[in-house]
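Blinded run. Sample ID left blank on purpose so nobody reads anything into the name before looking at the predicted structure. Input follows.
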Amino acid sequence: MAYSQLAYIYDVLMDDAPYDQWQSFVEHFCKQGKLLDLGCGTGRLSHQFALAGYSVTGVDFSEDMLAYAQANTSDIRYIQQDIRELEGLTGFDIVVSLCDVINYITTEEDLEKVFTNVWNSLTGEGLFIFDVHSLRHFNENMAGQTFAEIYDDISYLWFCEAGGTKGSVEHDLTFFLLDEETGQYERFDEQHIQRTFAVETYLNLLAKAGFQSVTVHGDFSIEESEEPEEKQRIFFVCRKR
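Blinded prediction complete.
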């Protein structure tokens, strides 16, 4: 699949994503500075941060996504790296990893690597903000569900099943994308595995990585949540010191 097709499919799936809410949440805690966007995908949120005045670097593992992002923005530095093995990225005032990117890190060992890498990337007073789906959301709203959409040029089927480990979900997706030259639909299949952990697990791993102050929020609220596990999306605001 050409990168433009892959990126187009991704943007269709994410068309209704709350990008403005992610941006507003981050800006409440840090309004400017040098920002590192981990798991930036096609760069849509990176671009919004750049327009808001941040100096942005985007990192993603997918060369296809980054090629599309680079072709559509000129004011952002994009780097292809695995966030479990970040290299050469230091001096950031804020690191963000949004839209459940961290749910693709499926072991505690790898989570600790990511959190340590982020800690090393931050300045002394740096801030790390990320979100994950809650266990309740995975169990009640995702596992065992089927989703589908039909558009003029793309359709998809999305099957979600509980994974083989606690807190994991397997996503099986089938896309049918119109080839404008032939008028035929081409089929593409993808599988994604996500996993989420209890809030306490994330807090313990963040502490091991060196973060000294962490607040937990639910569903884009800037107020700390007393029962974050009852929310669909959980935010962690982590201060290096």
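Unblinding after everyone has recorded impressions. The mean pLDDT is 93.
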